[in-house]
Structure formats: C-alpha cells, structure tokens
Write a structure and sequence with these properties.
Largest sheet: 5 strands, mixed
CATH superfamily of one domain: Cupredoxins -  blue copper proteins
Strand order of the largest sheet: 8-14-13-10-11
Number of strands: 19
Helix content: under 10%
Distance between the termini: 25 Å
CATH topology of one domain: Immunoglobulin-like
Shape: globular
Length: about 240
C-alpha cells in the first residue's frame, strides 16, 4: 500500500516525486489519484494462448450462461474494476450524485460496465431499431420500465449498492450493467491503470476496489484541502483468507 499527499502547487509544478499529472481540484477540495493493479496467485503458473497475454485461473465466473464456477483472468488487462471513496468522517460530506446516461443496445457480448452513485438518476435510451422491454431483477434495484420504443428514454433511481443488470426480455445477456456505489466519488477503470477522483471533500475515507470475479480491496485515505492524494491498490485471489 502507498498513500502520498501533495499540495496543489506541487501537482501543478510537478516538483515532488510521486505527484502524478492530474486535474487540479477546485479551491478547498482535493484530487485523489489511484494506481490500480491486479496480481495472480503467487504459486499459480499462467496459461498462454497464441498471441495473447498470459491467463490465470482462480477468478469466479459470474457471467450469464457460464457452466463453470471459475473463469480465466487476464491480469495484464483486467476490465470492470470499480474504484470509490467511502466517507468515514462527518467532515467528508457527500456531494450531490451526478446523473448517468446509458445507450441501450442488444449485443452478443456483455455491455460495458457503468458506475453510478446511490441516489443517482439513470437515464436509459433505446438506441436499437426495435422496441425493448426493459427491466431488472437485481436485489435492491429491481424495476420494470415496460416497452421502450426506438429512441425513447426512461429513468430509474439507483437505490442500493451493488451490480445491476438491465435486461430485455428478448435476449439472455444484459443490455446494460451498472455498478451502484455508496459514494458520489466512483469510477470504472482497467487494471493496471490509473483513475483520478476530482473535487473530493476533505476528510477521512476508505478507498475501495471491486471486481465481479476477484476479491475486493480497501485501504484508509485522507483527503486534505487543495491537495492531491496518491494511492496504490491491488486486486487478486491472494486477498482471500488463507485456510489453516
């Protein structure tokens, strides 16, 4: 784990080691830059496919229609990582959740993961050429928007944390995937990768990382006014408790 704190002036001047190029925060607020990585089990050897990055076993496969409890995980290009900050102190007040817009399309592959905050309005537009019957049965976020004509827009409110699969009765795969975080400072990224959470209210936080097939991770973080906080966080099966 690595957590660094740099002043806004240091961020702009780039004079201090470890202060990454990032958007300067608004006056009185902070920017949090997170370097995200994924690590395979230290004793598991990779399996290589022709012309591809190494693959490792050990990830739980939650994909629709999967017949296996486990999936191969590409740790060198891990998609669908969600990063968010959970306030731990009274001074780390939440700002208003931003609205989210999603284009709904039918596809033979999983749609990209989108992040939303609890309480956010999610606007979904039928971007296909035929009507869709749009609904969800995800726990805490179930809804039924009925039939949407091509180009029609409907909204729902993200109410509970967790993964939401938006469904269309004409196909098995989801037409949208939304991770609802209990925070307004949330982003989807790839590991390895870097994400910047801007205009964070100063205070104490827990930095969280989530992935649909790997154990999550978290660490403490302090956001100071007019500063940049830099942190490293990693995901991997070694996060699971070791059995005796």
């Amino acid at each position: 784990m690595r957590v660094l704190l740099c002043t806004t002036a240091s961020v702009l001047a780039g004079l201090l080691a470890g202060c990454h190029a990032a958007p300067a925060p608004s006056p009185g607020l902070a920017t949090v830059v997170v370097d995200v990585s994924a690590r395979p089990h230290e004793r598991v050897k990779p399996r290589r496919e022709s012309g591809s990055d190494p693959l490792y076993g050990g990830g739980y496969d939650s994909s629709p229609g999967s017949r296996s409890a486990y999936a191969r995980v590409r740790y060198t290009a891990l998609e669908d990582v969600v990063i968010w900050l959970a306030p731990q102190s009274a001074d780390a007040a939440e700002k208003r959740a931003d609205a989210v817009e999603i284009e709904l399309r039918r596809s033979k592959s999983e749609p990209p993961l989108v992040a939303a905050s609890c309480g956010a309005t999610v606007r979904m537009r039928n971007a296909s050429e035929t009507p869709m019957v749009v609904y969800s049965v995800s726990e805490g976020n179930a809804f039924d928007l009925g039939s949407l004509a091509p180009g029609e827009v409907a909204t729902w409110t993200a109410r509970a944390p967790g993964l939401v699969e938006v469904l269309d009765e004409s196909q098995e795969l989801p037409i949208a995937r939304v991770f609802v975080a209990p925070s307004c400072w949330v982003a989807v990224c790839r590991a390895p990768g870097r994400v910047a959470l801007r205009d964070v209210v100063p205070g104490q936080y827990r930095l969280h990382a989530w992935h649909p097939r790997l154990p999550g991770a978290e660490l403490p973080l302090t956001a100071e006014p007019d500063s940049l906080s830099s942190a490293d966080i990693w995901l991997g099966v070694d996060r699971l408790p070791h059995l005796p």
